[in-house]
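Troubleshooting: if your tokenizer reports a length mismatch, compare your output against this known-good record of 207 residues.
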Amino acid sequence: MKPYICFISCCAVVFSVNASPPERSGRISCEKPTYQAQCKLAWNFSETNKAYFIPQVFDVSEESWRNIEKPAIENYGVTKRTVEGGSLYRVLACDTPQVTDSCLDSGVYWVIARPKIGDLPESVADKRGNNMLIMKNADSKTQIDQYNVYVMINVLEQIDLSKLPPMVEPVATAREDFAEQHVNEDDEIQGSLYYNYTALREKALKK
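Known-good structure output:
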């Protein structure tokens, strides 16, 4: 098949690599000491009156969410263990330890996968056998950016995306005056992921 590049350029978003749980209530983010480190999922539901907070990962094979830890009782906290990159996560705020329709959804968050640059492939094949090219002569951020976008696209093509919630909106869209001051490598990658996810979800909702 003819290779192609499927890459939507990124915009600045504000997720600090050394962040505590997110500043805004109802949001989740990735907390880690360095870019290369695995992260813990962090949440802030400080403005809600829910009692339990349930971190979940999306299981592609089952097309369903599953808990990754026992429900927490802290409305402002992080997971006890690190989470794997290259997957979709969310946190639910609930009245009980069980998931019900009354739970509040944080929205979807993609945890960035960071293989060593030398281990990145030259392309990632989609479900039709087309190759999405990674620019191996580009800087490391661009390669990691492209790799995560392509892997996420492959995940989204396997599921009914119309049934998933929106992705966590980049803070920079609401606080553009701060964007240039706080932008970092992970911020830019999250921007690419957000706009690709949103475009594909909107397309799925129109079917």
